[in-house]
Amino acid sequence: MLESPNKISKVKSYLEKVFPQHSFLVKASMGHITELVIKNEKYPLGIELDTMTPIFNVVENKKDTIKQLISFANEVDKVILATDPDREGEAIAWHLQEQLKCQNKTIRLTFNEITEKAIENAFNNPGQLDYQLVNAQQSRQMIDRIMGFKLSNLLQKAENLKSAGRVQSVALKLIVDTELERKEHNKLEYWTIKQEYKDKNEIELYLDQDGKEIVKDKVLNSQEKAEEVLSKITNNLVVKEIIETEFSKNIYDAYTTSSILQDANIDLNYSSEKTTNLLQHLFENGYITYPRTDSTRLNDDFVRAVHKFIATNYGQEYVGQYKSGKTKENVQDAHEAIRPTNINLTLDKAKKEIANYDEYKLYELIYINTLYALMANETGVKYKVLFSNNGYTFKLNFKKYHFTSYYDLQEIVLDNFDYHFKVGEMITLESEWIAEQHFTKPSPRYTEHSLIKKLEIAGVGRPSTYATIMRTLINREYIKFDNKSIYPTEDGIKAHNLLQKYFSNIINEKYTADMEKVLDRIADGEINHIEFLKLFYNNFILDFNNATSIIFKNSVKCSKCDVGYIIQRKSYKGNYFKACSNFPACKNIVS
After folding, report:
1. Mean pLDDT per segment of 10 residues, for the chain of length 591 residues?
2. 159, 160, 184, 445: which one has the fewest Cβ atoms less than 10 Å from its Cβ?
3. Rounded Cα distance, 587 and 564, in Å
4. Contact 159, 51 (CB under 8 A)
5. Annotated catalytic residue: which of 290, 372, 392, 537?
6. By the 8 A CB rule, do 265 and 271 touch?
């Protein structure tokens, strides 16, 4: 049992090749087969709140599929649940087991890539369902349902807005907060003084006579002060100090979901939704590993294969030391990084195999990034040379490379300076000092890639949710794009304002990140999910009821349905009118 029908052919061919003694029937659930009930009189949230039990029914268009799968399950010796290796996949596997009533003959297989070796290893190491993962997934599902349904309903009744959500509303908060910060920004003037040195490098005024940093402390905040300094300094500088710092670094890390979404947006101009779909296709066709991950870890066999490839094709000196990296906070590290399944499927070969151009370009990005991540570090020395003149301190920064590693493959010629200075010597500059006016700038508006980066840093959301967050905010018309920059719409600001007025304690980065940690602990069996859900609901409903009583304190109840309130609404043409907030169930229009 798989999730996607696109995997069936490849998985079946590998199973038949590796295990010819068995006969296999490979089928797909096509994603989730059940959902929390909707519009149920007894369970309006799809949850039995006293026991915090989710109430599921079979998705309407999956009923025929389930009947077929039950028939197949009754005919076979084993039902192998091989849905995706994450919480969602574990939950789908559990629902399949429950619906097919085949608990006594199920085994659970997981594989991180669709290759012959990975499937053989999974088959030879079968497991069982991880019910703690299922508990964590269902806890997230119920929390999202409670917050989403309740807050969305409140926004619709109070402001005729479309929806709110546990994670999407935090992303909206980041966007609106940035917009408000930009409007309130107080522009400050400051000046810099520089002179061109050799090779277009610049020597810059660094410290004033009191040791204050010129740029950081905004010392020169007027033209008069800049001109005063110009009148005091000359072109004769004395070398005051030479600071040398050895460096050895690799600027590349194997891709996580977040970082590939960011780079694809920057380098290929792909939206997060487009990239997510392309990644799934590449995974299903066996070209890359599982695309929903927050880890930069790579498996040892793959690292050895890439190091051999690098040594053979570029030379032993380009082979790097694999850095497993420190596990960051909020990282589940359940799966390795996104990488090619076979480093020997070079770009020339891949171009002939991968017919879809956009998929190929994404594969190219992943292949090159993975190769560079396992190459030797770039090495050299950073120099910071300090000069003095009339009590002022100037600086010159430059690098001298020993080994340029992956830059050689890109045919990038780096600036490699070989200046020689001695402390106490005097140098005479040949140009003129230039004073330049600047003004402080507010924080830039988010782009799609910078918002995803911020969400990841803040611990908001998970790899599988980034594209959904963006799509929801766009579809709800809470944000708009202008030259890649994200702007909040009028409705987006209204939704943000109401949520922050009454629910700022739960619609914020810290609360949402802490919730992710709790879900991780539920998945690890450290927290009883039922007890946590009860505590969450009791606290949430108190805040919700309090907000509702305040918002509708002076509102007039709809005389027609006695459920909604009379609010100001806006038509599709932009005209305002008063009508029931319970639309479309109630179509009462007052004026």
Report:
1. 94 95 94 92 93 96 94 95 94 96 93 94 94 97 96 90 94 98 96 94 96 95 97 97 96 95 97 96 96 93 96 96 63 79 97 97 98 96 97 96 93 87 96 96 96 95 90 96 96 97 96 95 96 96 91 85 77 76 78 70
2. 184
3. 10
4. no
5. 290
6. yes
* CB-count exposure of residue 577 (10 Å: 0-12, 13-18, 19+): exposed
Distance CA 497, CA 505 (A): 13
* Nearest 10 degrees: Cα torsion 523, 528, 533, 538: -150
What is the sign, positive or negative, of the torsion defined by CA atoms of 32, 34, 38, 44?
A: negative
Omega before 584 cis (within 30°)?
A: yes
SS3 for 301-316 is: HHHHHHHHHHHHHHCH
Residue of 253, 260, 173, 84 lying closest to 460 (CA atoms): 173
pTM for the structure as a whole = 0.89
Scanning the structure block, which residue is given the tokens 């309090």? 546
CA-CA-CA-CA torsion sign (144, 149, 155, 160): positive
Burial label for 496, CB within 10 Å (0-12, 13-18, 19+), is: buried
> Is residue 290 among the annotated active site residues?
yes
Q: What whole-number distance in Å separates Cα of residue 79 and Cα of residue 108?
A: 9
Residues 136, 140, 146, 148, Cα dihedral to 10°: -170
Burial (CB count <10 Å: 0-12, 13-18, 19+), residue 23: exposed
Residues in Cβ contact with 74 at an 8 Å cutoff, skipping those fewer than 6 apart: none
* Residue 46 φ then ψ, to 5°: 75, 20
- The Cα 337–Cα 392 span in angstroms is 49
Q: What is the 3-state secondary structure (H, E, C) of 109-175?
A: CCCCCCCHHHHHHHHHCCECCCHHHHHHHHHHHHHHHHHHHHHHHHHHHHHCCCCCCCCHHHHHHHH
3-class state of residue 372 by DSSP? helix
Cα end-to-end distance, the chain, whole Å: 56
Token digits of residue 46: 């799809």
